[in-house]
Amino acid sequence: MLTQQGLSRVIAPMFQPVVDLLHDDTLYFEALARSSTKQSHLELLRCAENFGFIELVDAAMLELVAHRLALEPHVSIAVNASVGTIERNCGPLVAAIFSHLQQADRLIVEITETVAVRDPRSVEIFMSGARAAGVRVAFDDFGDGHFSFEHILRFKPDIVKLAGTMLARPREFRRDISRLLSMAAAEGFAVVAENIDTEEKRQSCVAMGIRYGQGFLFGELAESPVRTTEMAPVVSRPGIRAAAKS
């Protein structure tokens, strides 16, 4: 039988920094699930969604990230959770977060948009429970999935991550990007641009008013989340801030 413990032996977190685009300060790291077998991580995640065991993948990653946070007291880390996991497994997922309360204020949960929200009440309950533990909540890949502006207004995430597909065609999506930034200013959430792999894309984001970003321009996927010994990255509502140097 496939179990969370079994999955923890075939997946591993790889870390990529999220940075302040103006100063390159590392704010937190995203933990991305990667397969330790010959199977690609995309294939594994697709199978997990299609065959109903994505909650085991998400739970295994949460445990691995919580363990890493315990070892690295000066970093914050984001871990993904599927909408499917939240809707089918909301209570156990919140309970798992509460079992790591000492690390919860340095944990961000990125809700992925690969499936549509069918039970919005479950998402609200999850976000309320996660926040009660001190966890921040992000919406992943906005503009390239099922999340909408209406979802942002209803659920009020702490962070919205802007899909790289929108940044690749800024003229086409300028109105949507402008609306998102205006909403962020009004609602108090941070916007993180994804898939920044060139200096040109960074400068384009800054020109549009996007303060935070992630991508290969700032770091390849790494086995360790420690980019420097000086930074103590944290996320704090209503936005993101870099902590004072330790």
TrEMBL record:
Which molecular function terms from Gene Ontology are attached? Answer: cyclic-guanylate-specific phosphodiesterase activity
CDD domains assigned: EAL
Q: Which SMART domains match?
A: EAL
Pfam families listed in its UniProt record: EAL (PF00563)
- Residue ranges annotated for the EAL domain, each copy included: 1-235
Which regions form coiled coils? none
**What is this protein's name?**
EAL domain-containing protein
Q: Which organism is it from?
A: Xanthomonas citri pv. sesbaniae
